[in-house]
């Protein structure tokens, strides 16, 4: 396309975008006709954008066919196909044959199927065979559906074995609480039953998976220093012989609100004060501290360490990162809690952790603060349940966590 013509087409694209952005839909058809009559060519991307908004522009099938005729099939993009499917799924222009035609053509040309391609199908189609085809293909195309899609599917009276499969898939995919506005929908779809969610428990499989990733990372990090690596590995192996149910990130507590001393010198009395508080609540703590902090302890602090009877003190050898040690200690004991204010973003990134780490962190990590008036520690005990759907396949029960505007979690149970 010559430069001046290409510029005219690009300028026209901007004109159409402005009309769309300002909702001046009635001017779009006239603008298209005027531009074509002047002998100019409309860019495929412009037509695709028009088709994406065509239901706001016209209710006439002749207008739609005219717009479609302006773009060659080989120039169709994902947006074009998705827009065409949305047009022919709409009640005014409904044509299931064309929906299938464009959907199959999309796959033939290896155009990625996106969730937006399917959402209008799940919200509109009521035919069982058709909806099950598109649901099944969404799994084949690796499209992650959202709650509204599952609700659209489950509104249809599909066979029980399919319904069970789709509910299980929904419970696996939706990993967060859902808005309370959806409660009336599920209350209508299924019988409500009493439901008590299960407290989160770190299973052996997830614990071993995370520990293995830690070992691989630490192995790479200290690969050139086998003696130090052996020392660290030996230290970490000691946790299997120790009895504790909460790990204290000693440096994190010791540096807390230390002002100018933060990052320089820890406060041992803070650490043992918090340890005593945990013991009074029935916990059996183990404090993780690096050797460097022990060497900097004052005579008074050394006396405090010697007289400590409430909790075990684990000293991290020189050269090792105490972060890895307290994290390893917490994860290796599947029933243990962890006390720290560390967000652990780097740990998640560098050690390539996945969803199981997020689940563990959200339920097993106790944060803390200090009352400005009394200077006493205050604990922030985590919510003990995973805030996501819980399914009991054997008894055909589904637990759903709802959240209102106050972010309070409200559980409802259903039989399906």
From TrEMBL:
Keyword flag Hydrolase: yes
Annotated signal sequence range: none
GO molecular function list: hydrolase activity; metal ion binding
Keyword terms of this UniProt record: Hydrolase, Metal-binding, Zinc
Span of domain PRORP: 242-386
Gene3D superfamilies associated with the record: 3.40.50.11980
UniProt KW Zinc keyword: yes
InterPro entries to which the protein is assigned, alphabetical: PRORP_C (IPR031595)
PANTHER family with a match to the protein in the record: PTHR13547
Assigned protein family: Belongs to the PPR family. P subfamily.
Name assigned to this protein: PRORP domain-containing protein
Source organism (scientific name): viral metagenome
């Amino acid at each position: 396309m010559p430069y001046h013509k290409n510029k005219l087409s690009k300028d026209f694209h901007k004109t159409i975008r402005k009309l769309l952005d300002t909702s001046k839909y009635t001017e779009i058809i006239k603008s298209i006709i005027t531009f074509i009559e002047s002998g100019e060519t409309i860019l495929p991307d412009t037509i695709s954008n028009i088709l994406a908004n065509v239901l706001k522009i016209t209710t006439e099938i002749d207008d739609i066919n005219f717009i479609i005729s302006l773009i060659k099939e080989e120039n169709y993009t994902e947006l074009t196909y998705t827009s065409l499917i949305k047009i022919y799924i709409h009640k005014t222009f409904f044509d299931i044959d064309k929906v299938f035609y464009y959907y199959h053509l999309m796959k033939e040309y290896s155009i990625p199927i996106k969730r937006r391609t399917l959402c209008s199908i799940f919200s509109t189609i009521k035919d069982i065979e058709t909806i099950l085809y598109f649901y099944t293909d969404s799994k084949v195309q690796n499209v992650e559906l959202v709650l509204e899609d599952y609700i659209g599917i489950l509104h249809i009276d599909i066979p029980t074995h399919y319904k069970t499969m789709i509910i299980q898939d929904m419970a696996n995919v939706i990993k967060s609480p859902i808005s309370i506005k959806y409660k009336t929908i599920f209350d209508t779809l299924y019988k409500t039953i009493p439901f008590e969610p299960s407290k989160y428990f770190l299973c052996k499989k997830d614990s071993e998976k995370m520990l293995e990733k830690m070992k691989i990372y630490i192995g790479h990090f200290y690969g050139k220093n086998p003696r130090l690596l052996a020392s660290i590995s030996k230290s970490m192996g000691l946790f299997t012989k120790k009895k504790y149910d909460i790990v204290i990130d000693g440096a994190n507590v010791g540096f807390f609100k230390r002002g100018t001393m933060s990052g320089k010198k820890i406060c041992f009395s803070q650490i043992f004060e918090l340890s005593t508080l945990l013991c009074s609540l029935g916990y059996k703590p183990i404090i993780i501290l690096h050797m460097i902090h022990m060497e900097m302890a004052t005579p008074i602090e050394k006396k405090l360490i010697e007289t400590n009877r409430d909790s075990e003190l684990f000293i991290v050898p020189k050269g090792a990162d105490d972060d890895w040690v307290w994290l390893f200690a917490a994860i290796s004991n599947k029933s243990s809690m962890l006390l720290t204010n560390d967000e652990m973003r780097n740990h998640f990134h560098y050690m390539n952790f996945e969803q199981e780490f997020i689940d563990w962190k959200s339920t097993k990590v106790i944060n803390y603060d200090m009352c400005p008036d009394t200077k006493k520690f205050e604990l922030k005990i985590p919510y003990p349940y995973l805030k996501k759907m819980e399914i009991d396949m054997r008894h055909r029960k589904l637990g759903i966590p709802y959240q209102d505007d106050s972010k309070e979690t409200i559980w409802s149970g259903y039989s399906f």
